[in-house]
Each structure stands twice: as structure tokens, then as C-alpha cells.
Amino acid sequence: MPPPPPLLDPGPERTAQAFDGALGDSELVVARTALTQGRWQATRSLLLRTGDDWDRRGHRITVLAREPYTAAWARDWLHAEPGSADASVLLALSLVRRSLRGRQDPGGSRAACRTAAALAPADPTPWLGLLLLEHAGPEADRIFTEVLRRHPDHHHAHHLMVARLAERQPESGPDPRHEVYDFADRAADHAPADSPLAVLPVVAHTERYRALAAVGRAPADSTASAHWVGPRARRVLRTAFHWWLEWEHDDHPRRHVDLNFLAHATSCAGRAAEAAALFRRIGRHATPAPWSYPDLDPCAAFRTARARALGTPVALASRQNPF
Predict the structure, then answer these.
(1) Nearest residue to 288 (alpha-carbon basis) of 264, 270, 311, 308
(2) Global model pTM greater than 0.85
């Protein structure tokens, strides 16, 4: 089975155009615009300001890495500043993106990530790049351990591991003891009380649905699936929604990823009031995953679910807030 669609790359170009990976980070948008014009100095300043806020650094670099000519501009930056750790990791992640789209030898991308890791030993971002290239297995586990050594609550890396683990043994069906649930529960339990990893059990439940639906072990129509109304689903949704009410971090760089997973899950479970609150909080910051699960047009799926939760006709909701 091929690896799941990576969170770095939302899929076809038309989908990428409909969703803004910056997720409301205005500083990132400014730097990205300058980078598309070959002005890497804005990116240099952005990453310098970001410092060792590892989740924010990872988010910003992976978004910048999606631009078609980032690798070329990162090489220009390295030519001007040989040995720059920031330029090196930006180049590495841009090559990873190319590899994920089949336009770059993964071996060269892995080598670039290891070069970046050597230049910035404390930075988990080069290891995030390596993790993006790996399917679940011993090597992915080892790389994930390297990420955790540098940032134990790394948001993106935990999401990637959940997506990988969820695809194991789909033939076993909706097994509540599947290893992805244990992984997500342990991560949430061991994280600080205010950590967004509290939402990870919902992400695990959603990724497992994707894996089951892909092999016909769950309905393609998520709203018709019993996957969302069982005891585990009710427990993890209740816990995650209450965590959001108490602890939501407006400043977390990937908070809208969690909001979209929560909105999707509450929509599938028929919890309209909770879904409506989440959709209002999401605003224009929809994300391709999980609305594309199992094989849907994410734009249409998001708009339909939002309109249903808010009690608004789909056409009117799309005109008011097309995101």
C-alpha cells in the first residue's frame, strides 16, 4: 500500500490553489510572496525571528517549501551565506516536497536533510523532512524518536506518525484496540495539559476511517459510517472538544489543522452544535485533510458539512465564505 498523502503536500494543483497552507500566518504570507519573486532575505528574517519555536518553524518551512522555485532560491541563499542552517533546511524540505511529487530522487532529499541536521543539531525540522519520506516501519520509528529528542510535543510529526500507523492492517476492520489508538492515547496522556496533542486521538480515529474506507471496510460516505458513533468515538470527541473549549491556543501555528479534524469528526457524528462552533472558529482556514477522506473533493465536502452545521444552503454559504 502506498504511503498516505503527506501533510506537506495537499495533492493536485487545483486543490493546493483552493487552500492556503499558511493558515493565517501573515508574516509567513509576506515572506512567501517575496520568496516567489526571488527575494529570500524576507525568509531569512522570518526564520531568524521564529527562533526555536519548533512547531512554528516547521510549519513555516514546510509552507515555504511548497513553492515551485524554493529550491533554486534556497541555493542562491546558500551561495551568498555558505553554511547557513536556515537556508540548508529550507533547501532540504523543498527537495522533500519535490520527491513526494515524484520530481526528485528521494536519496538526494534524504542527504540534504542530513546535511541540514548536521548544521542545526537541535532543530527537529530536518528530521521532519526525513519522516515525510518514510512509511511506517523501523526507520520511521527511529526518525520519529530523533524528532522527539528535540521537541517531545512536535505537532506535525505526531500527525504524520498517526497517518502512517492508521494504515496498518486495514483488513482487521474497526478494531478499537488498533495500535494507532494506543499511540495517540499515550501521546495525549503524556503531553502537558495545554498541549494540542490532546486532539490526537480524534486525528487517529479519522485517519483510521480513511484507511478502512480505502479498502471498503467503512462506507465512503463518512456521515453514514458507524465509525463515528461508537463508544470510542464518543469518548475521544467529548474529551477533545472540552479541551478545545478550555485550552485552545490562538497562537499555535497549526491550530487550524486540529480545528478542521474536530469539525470533520463532529460533523460525521451528527453533533451539529459543536460542529457549528468549530466552523465559525475555522473561518477561511480550511485544510484539505480530512475533508478529502476517503476520496472526496475537499472543497465541496467542507462547504457541504459547514452548510449543514450552520443550517445554511450550500450555495449561499459558499458565496458568503468560500474560504
Answers:
(1) 264
(2) yes
